[in-house]
Description:
The complex is a heterodimer. Chain A is of the alpha+beta class. Chain A has 18 helices and 11 strands. In chain A, the strands form 3 sheets. In chain A, strands 3, 4, 5, 6, 7, 10 and 11 form a 7-stranded mixed beta sheet that branches. A two-stranded antiparallel ribbon of chain A has the order 1-2. Chain A has a two-stranded antiparallel ribbon with strand order 8-9. In chain A, strand 4 (179-182) and strand 5 (188-198) form a beta hairpin. In chain A, helix 9 crosses helix 15 (512-545) and helix 15 runs antiparallel to helix 16. Chain B has 4 domains: 9-192, Rossmann fold (3-Layer(aba) Sandwich), CATH 3.40.50; 200-435, N-(1-d-carboxylethyl)-l-norvaline Dehydrogenase, domain 2; 449-596 and 642-684, 2-enoyl-CoA Hydratase, Chain A, domain 1 (Alpha-Beta Complex), CATH 3.90.226.10; 604-639 and 687-779, no CATH class. In chain B, a hairpin with an 8-residue loop joins strand 6 (146-151) and strand 7. In chain B, helix 23 packs parallel to helix 25 and helix 31 packs antiparallel against helix 32 (717-731). The radius of gyration of chain B is 28 Å and the shape is globular.
Amino acid sequence: MQVYKAPLRDMRFVLHELHGSAELTALEGQGELSADLIDDVLEQAANFTETVLLPLNASGDLEGCHYENGVVRTPQGFRQAYDAFREAGWNAAASDPAYGGQGLPASVYKLVEEMICSSNLSFGLYPGLTHGAYLALRSHGSQELKDAWLPKMVEGRWSGTMCLTEPHCGTDLGLLRTRAIPQGDGSYSITGSKIFISAGEHDLTENIVHLVLARLPDAPKGIKGISLFLVPKFLQDADGNPGPRNGVSCSGIEHKMGIKASATCQINFDAAKGWLIGEPHKGMRAMFTMMNSERVSVGTQGLGVAEAAYQAAVAYARERLQGRSLAGAKYPDRPADPIIVHPDVRRMLMTARAYTEGCRALCGWVARALDEHELSPDQQIRTAAEDRVALMTPIVKALFTDLGFEVANLAVQTYGGHGYIREHGVEQYVRDARIAQIYEGTNGVQALDLVGRKMSSNFGRPLRSFFHPVLAFIDANLEDEALADFIGPLAKSFGTLQQATAHIAANGLRDPEEAGAAATDYLRLFGLVALGYMWARMAKIAVGKRETAGADAAFYEAKLVTARFYMERLLPQTGALWSAIRSGKASTMALGEDRF
Amino acid sequence: MTNGKIEKVAVIGAGVMGAGIAAQVANAGVPVLLLDIVPAGAAEGGDRSAIARTAIERLKKTDPAPLMSEKAARLIEPGNIDDDLARIGECDWIVEAVIERLDIKQALYAKIEAARRPDAAVSSNTSTIPLHDLVAGLPETFRLNFLITHFFNPPRYMRLLEVVAGADTDPAQAARVSRFADERLGKSIVRCKDSPGFIANRLGVYWIQAGVVEAIDLGLAIEDADAVMGRPFGIPKTGVFGLADLVGLDLMPHINASLAKSLPPADAFHALNRDLPLIGRMIAEGYTGRKGKGGFYRLNTANGGRVKESIDLATGAYRPSARADTETLKEAGRDLRALFNAPGPVGEYAWRVMGRTLAYAAGLVPEAADDIVAIDDAMRLGYNWKEGPFALIDRVGAAWLVERLKAEGATVPPLLEQIGDRKFYRVENGRLQFFGLDGDYHDVVRPEGVILLEDIRRRSQPVLKNGAASLWDIGDGVACFEITTRGNSLDDQVLDALDRTIKLVARDYKALVIYNEGRHFSVGANLGLALFAANIAAWGEIEKLVATGQKVYGALKHAPFPVVGAPSGMALGGGCELLLHSDAVQAHAETYAGLVECGVGLVPAWGGCKELLVRWSAPGKLPHGPMPAPAKVFEMVSTATVSKSAAEARDMLILREGDRVTMNRDRLLADAKARALELVEGYTPPERVEIVLPGPSGKLAMMMAAQGFHKRGIATDHDLVVADGLADVLSGGDADPTVPAAEKDVLRLERETFMRLARTPGTLARIEHMLLTGKPLRN
Lengths: 596, 779
């Protein structure tokens, strides 16, 4: 039996206390937002995910999706759960009111997403992909296309996909072959094969809207010759309802390691009718709008799984009785002490907790930037927020998914042999979490994005959106003795990050392979410092509140202990990473290819 | 005396070229008489010299400025041919720059012959008429003293001077004019034979014509054509069509016709010289290039927009300019052979235009020039090519070129056959040598008294070197510090090399020259590095760089040996501060110096504020009292003033009394070295001085001025923030005007203010904008 209770107290802490929810009301269209309203949304989401989605997580994993004659059936109960999800308005929650959405800011909705991912990652992919397609279409589509397709997608009656990958091209999209031929009536005829299409075909919605990357006849070679098209499963009839079947078919689904309840499809386009989104040959730009948001969402998947795995590990560590505490029996009346007394089990639980809460806080910081970029009335704030989103997106994606997998693994380890068997459902977290490190750009690609594009863009301007606030925070609290144990380690690791950044910028300019060899270590170093920044800020709040918190004091005490654990036991990894980075590419690249 | 000095010059013909030549003579400090005809219908009592007078007024307003200073303008005296021709008797050299008509020129020569001094040189600025035609029928005394001096437009800035001596020209007279043009006017002399179009235009016109015709034939967009014909060959990015716009489309048919008329029938130019209806139509409609309504490119400002447009060669209609397709260029990289061989229209265009131009160049020796060096020099100096055609042939391989020419049945010039698989240039025992017509290699000989670092680099090793700078032994106990970074920008490595240089020169040398042969002496501190450091909040690193710069520049100033700064081109910010810490400056006339830090939201902090305060506080510069000097420096620095010449830099006290100007770029190092050696005897380093600064009341006065500009919309919001910082430094902060401040106090204020401003978002935005666009941000 999987267990999961949405961590509402911590979520409220992140939203209201750490990042301040009152400021959200200053954003455009958010005047009505109040703390009560937010808490209400979070509670409803908690209730829905705990009671509707969680029970389907293990069963969906066991049963998987079914493919027969071009038709894909989702596991038992998914259809009903999806209908309930849609009827409760969750599809529309974070979308533009102009198309029927409720306009919840990302700061709130990312928490809902986390709950969905904790309770049922596979399920979350169906509405998640739709939201990504919605974003690309809303930002780049013509008004006509938007009016025709967005309302039903926002409502959740129609779902969306993104069709990028082809059998011979994954990361390197410049190689893709799917063709689009103009038909003279404003539409295009799309032909080609796509693979690994999440939610490409299923039985949850009346129609499926594919966003497809393809080449026009006069397209330049490579990545600069790719355009984006909207290609529906069913064309609309005169009333805007699903009409004739388009030339889109599903020729099979993949058999995967995890997220088995999510249909991963092979989709064939055979002279399918489609419409251009945005300008010709500018498809990658449109796709990236969606990809940035999707990458933060994938990071949230890592966070969601980590939270669920952590809770499972805690539950088991409390009830499993094995051995005695090294400090002498803690529960002499029982046959053995619960394993939570053992330092090494503690190490695993504290690590999981510190990472998970740290990621939640950082996710909130980035979500706030997403909101400010989209909704702030102040141009300067919008630009700074855009920089922060751009900088932090690869970090959130790669760090959160790597840590999500790590925490899921720690949960299995806490269970021992019982984690390795199916009964408790913990090994599913390992399998489910694994994909998040791969899709939407592998974590290696994220690291290259960070050291290549983000670091060099505008002479490092995106970096400013992180380095300046962190240094300002350090400077402002350096003298506060109550915070010395937190600010000290943060300042030290921040200095290390500055050195590593300057080092990679200088060496990478001279030799791009140097940057490439350092990239993954650097991303982790950056991520750990970012979590350190969050933990120091959380510690500052906890120090200020614990005396007067009354019944809530335990929450702040726990925060401080976890913050201390992070600073003392996890953040020091930055030193080792810096050593590795400084050693350069030589030993990585020295071995001849034929020696492998 | 045909070898006497030239102390006064007459220029006849006050058109663009004549006036420009007169301006450059005046820039050299030599008085010049500028004559033109009496305007038709000049009223009784009206100004009979109006044409020359108007031309002088126009010189003062032209951009880029033909005149280097106001003083130079006063050296040009206007006159007219009818009343003042007799006055050419005062002149040692008479330059004719009238309309390109043989009859008019010859009639004028007859008058000149009557009025000139017997030893005066006469030269024509003709670009199309052969010398033997010009002197036909004129007396021997005239022919003896006559030559062609062909300047390029604009005469101040184009370094090429083509000199043609006729069969009868007295070599001493030609040498006299050449020496004056070289040393005083700063021109590089290329001796040409008396053949049509001389060298640069003969080849340049062929190249442009090929570029236009082949783009039409191949259906290539002009952006793509210019992208091929520019950077890959080391040619300015204007390529062919952009250059035609600059020169003026209306000139093309005239030049082509006159060249075609005088070239032998077998010349390859005839095959290219066809009538182009598109160009005829453009000229008729006023699209004559940048001076007209636009040319092949134009800026369409209709409907309030600013859209760069290009002409479609097929339809003749304008369309929005597109980014050039540079895929082929990228693939070929620096490999010209790969570019010539590249499949598709881009490669084909490269070959048809440049392949043939190179072959044409090879055919010009010995017809138009005695050796290949003259041809390469002419194209480098007259068309701003980085390398001349023969250096380009060396890159492609002469043998390969011959093979390809033969493959398409083209004639192969004998010189190309002769050289086989050898190169036109080689370095032998550290000396650059060229391939002569005799089949042997000969040293490339520099004019007497020229020292080039380029040559020193070939034959010796640097005394000291790192990734950003080198130190060279230039003989006679003098060392030369050369910055080698991009734009010669300054970073921690340059400072480190300079620091080590100071110690080494103190031990092993008598004097130091700071000089390089880049386009710019130094564009200032490397802002990219600084901005990156600021973005990652590495304030400690930035502060260290500022402090190190102050320390090293201070050590340079107080070193136990004389230091001569020898700038050419831009000397901005930290580059200007290098000059301010030198004992003397030997400046190329084209020196553009200034403290421009405020433009990027900073203040000079490597001692620039301090040095200018010291210079302007020196007795006799300004009225007494603590206020005038800071106010003057504030005015210059807050507006990021840059001199438009060495003469203007002198007005700013970047050059001081005793500092000298070199007109010829190639003579700068030799002059700087000589100046350094002059200073060695009895040298004592300057002492540290104290400066009386006005303190808070002075700051208030400066800020009132700045706020006035702000109210009038001339200064921006962030200008005020920066001005406030600068006023802090220049007023001495909370200095007491009765107690002189030490240099180190001003240096401390420079550092503190710099660091304060570096942290402001407005300054970071300015730096970023400058780096990305090359233009200042007015925030």
